[in-house]
Amino acid sequence: MADIGDKLRSARKAKGMSIEDVEKITKIQRRYLTAIENNDFDQLPGDFYVRAFIRQFADVVGLNGKELLADYKSEVPEAKPEEYVENSIDNKSEKIKETTNSRKGMWRSYLPQIATVVGVVLVILVVYIVYTRFFTGTNQQSANQAENVTVSSSRIKSSKSKTSSKKKSTPKAKTSEVKIVSLGNNSYRVSGMKNDRTLTLGTTKNEVWAQILVNGSSVWQGTLKASGKHSIQLPQNVNNVSVQMGNSVSTTLTLAGKKVNARNSTNPASPMTIRFTFTGQNSQSTNTQQSSSTSQSSTNNVNTQTQQNQNTQNRQGTQNTQNTQGQTNTNQNNGGQSNR
């Protein structure tokens, strides 16, 4: 009769299993399984483990573990009661409970220390939050006050600069004020024109033919497209300007930045002429011409008087010469008579 190890080996091979396969299923180390197949039970940790391992081995390879142990009772060592109790499940459970209780006791012993550490951490956290909120609020309030002061000072500066600019610009506006007075029949009198001498003609919607005459001479003529403009610079010696337009449906006109009515309200489709007469800026040239004429007249008068004086002197000189010659002849005649 084969021993228990041979029977287990034959059953394993009949199943097509290797020692490694049995090891994976039973979780029994390979060396213990080999020792069981060789009936070398002294390699196992104890008699209890011999019977337990054989039973598991038999169940895996398709044998009945209890029957196998009963059949080979004489070959398999009996487990001692003390060893059985020591390795029983209840005994192991008790050991596990003892280990668990010991760990619980260890944690309980550390609980006061843990609670102290947690309390200190909480106190530090609360102090930090209060500190940051207090000083952050103070800094924010200071920053807002500084910002308000900066804004108010900038507003004061801007208001002062605006006031000073207004004060500075007001006299300039008065000195460079251009006056355009309507004389009726699309005629205007212009005075006070200084640096800005721009005349701009434009149209918004319709095309318009136009011509600009300065002092009676045409300086520009052409057709303005819709939204078109044309500007000219008036000379210093301008006396009169005429703006002739083929229609005034959508025409615009500005002189020195001032708008002038360039629309015939009764018949905008008919031709229209606007005339400007300039005063003030030509008075100086007129006075200059008059002064020049006066100076020239004075010079001519002086030259005439000088010429007359020269002629008078020449006549007097000729007369004196003739008188001297006459007196000499008389003296000679008198001398001749005395000698006789």
UniProtKB/TrEMBL annotation:
PROSITE patterns: HTH_CROC1 (PS50943). SMART domains: HTH_XRE. The chain crosses the membrane at residues 110-131. The keyword Transmembrane applies. Residues 151-175, 281-340 are annotated as: Disordered. Residues 8-39 form the HTH cro/C1-type domain. SUPFAM superfamilies: lambda repressor-like DNA-binding domains (SSF47413). InterPro entries: Bact_Cytoskel_RodZ (IPR050400), Cro/C1-type_HTH (IPR001387), Lambda_DNA-bd_dom_sf (IPR010982). Keywords: Membrane, Transmembrane, Transmembrane helix. The keyword RNA-binding does not apply. GO terms for molecular function: DNA binding. Residues 157-171 have a biased composition (Basic residues). This is Helix-turn-helix domain-containing protein. It comes from Lactobacillus gasseri.
